[in-house]
User: What shape does this take?
Amino acid sequence: MIRSLVNGEPRDQVSVLDRGLQFGDGLFETIAVTGGHPCLWDYHMQRLQSGCERLGITSPDVCLLKQEALELIADQSEAVLKITVTRGISERGYKADPYESPTRILALFDWDGPVSGTLKIAVSPRRLGHNSDLAGIKHLNRLEQVLARAACPEDVDEALMLDHHGHVIEGMMSNLFWQEGQRLYTPSLQRCGVAGVVRALILEIAREQGAHIETGDFMLQDILQADALYLTSSLAGVRSVSRISGYDWHARTADVHPLLKEAAGRVFD
Assistant: This one.
């Protein structure tokens, strides 16, 4: 870590009573910094504010977050900025103090910048549980992803995660799109999964262009019929998949779908 702020002060520690530490009671955003600029800032702030509203956490002022983010970035050209917001401090027990102020943490990490090239992926043996109250938001409880990462083979870059019904949901650290001909598909995130900011950008571009992206419940067998697979995230941008470990699948086209190519060009602007 390069440096950090806790509630606007240069610190790298929080109280042992912070509810983010005690219960995972909070949210976070992982933001790419390129050319000293926090990429997709508005998308990250929209997701953070939406998550705070759904969890009943008072959302930090976006202008204050931007001010602190730029202060932290300073002259750092390439970096990763992580913003964490928790419900604040409380004594033991799940009941929160309605008058307690949220904790905001901004931390800056070294990063070499976006990486290009295709990905080799696996299918995780770990499964995602359903919880529509938490689906889509980037809350602090990431134990499913921690366990999936521990089970991930070392020779792959990512792993697809399925739910307990066998529906493909997302990657451990990314969202999934795939292509059949010129049609695009992406899994529904109504019951589990994280609604990524690059996913939001792609869906917005589709609306602008009047294009249709099919969203729904899909099994692994559906994915294996795809001509091309793409994983998206704030740090990876839009990257094509070349192979799925353990499965007889390979990309049937080397050409990135035009809509996804446009999105890829906007991610790190």
Observations:
- The longest strand covers residues 119-128.
- Helices lie at 19-23, 41-55, 62-73, 143-150, 197-209, 220-223, 258-267.
